[in-house]
Design goal:
The protein has 164 residues and is an alpha/beta fold. It contains five helices and five strands, in the order βαβαβαβαβα.
Amino acid sequence: MSIGDNQPNILSEINAHRMKAVANENTLVAVLVLGACENHGDHMPFGADFIMPFELAKRVAAKKQSNVIVLPPLPYGVSSHHKDFFMTISLQPETMISVIFDVLQSLVRNNVRRILLINGHDGNIAPIELAARKIKEQYPDVVISCLESWWTLVGEIDKNLFEV
């Protein structure tokens, strides 16, 4: 894989040599996908909340691949409202805030100053906001942008996409 081949830079799939070629603290954008592992009924996979936004992140990175790195998705989220459904795996809100904060802080320590969060699960919205605020207080020069409900945006783009 070489830079400019329209392949997204997915951190878990590239080596340190490739990362060094991509890394430029002035332009590098890291994309973090947050999801959940929960029961959506018999018709959808348990990972739908991170599978779909991860694909979105990869497509964004493929278009702007020279300066975008897609991090491995966080496959668990705050799903306490689904706790009674079989095989829903949920984190406590405080745990989720800490995990997000730790990942963001790791990025900042690696000189990543522009971060895009793509969330796939409504239970993560508040923890994302709290963790991002903590980072911004400590590192005011870091730019954090969040697409907190990609499904809403898609519904607004094409009103006929979903029947419900």
